[in-house]
Amino acid sequence: MRLLVFEYSNDVRKIIAKQIKLINSQADVILTRNLYGTVKELSKCSFDIVIIDGDSTEGELKKVIELTKSKNKDAVIILLTSYDIPILRKRFFDLGVDYNFDKLTEFDSFLKILKTVISDVKEKEKNKAV
């Protein structure tokens, strides 16, 4: 299982990486802090789960989503933002985001969903191997 965590904040990035390793110690986790590094990693290989810092996409969220899905159409995309604006959430979902959370008020909900998504991907991998 490969995960990409694109998060500008070093502290938030470390928390997410730690939580992923607690959920699945075997997960291959790639951490990036900017759009350039994210696009570079997405161009190299596919990921099962991509977590995107929506505040740092520099208007290129659609490009990141398209690149992610071009490598793995089943990739789960989780968008983290610093705001909760319903009309923007709808736009994010229309672009292909699977989950959207406000980092400030919904971080616990994000962690719960992350655990579920990792378990689901792990189960799919297990079923493919059979």
Automatic annotation (TrEMBL):
SUPFAM superfamilies associated with the record: CheY-like (SSF52172)
Superkingdom: Bacteria
Keywords from the UniProt entry: Phosphoprotein
Modified positions (4-aspartylphosphate) in chain numbering: 53
Every Response regulatory domain range: 2-118
Oxidoreductase as UniProt keyword: no
Signal sequence coordinates: none
GO BP term (any one): phosphorelay signal transduction system
InterPro entries in the record: CheY-like_superfamily, Sig_transdc_resp-reg_receiver
PROSITE patterns per the UniProt record, alphabetical: RESPONSE_REGULATORY
The name this protein goes by in its record: Response regulatory domain-containing protein
Biological source species: Melioribacter roseus (strain DSM 23840 / JCM 17771 / VKM B-2668 / P3M-2)
Lineage: Bacteria, Pseudomonadati, Ignavibacteriota, Ignavibacteria, Ignavibacteriales
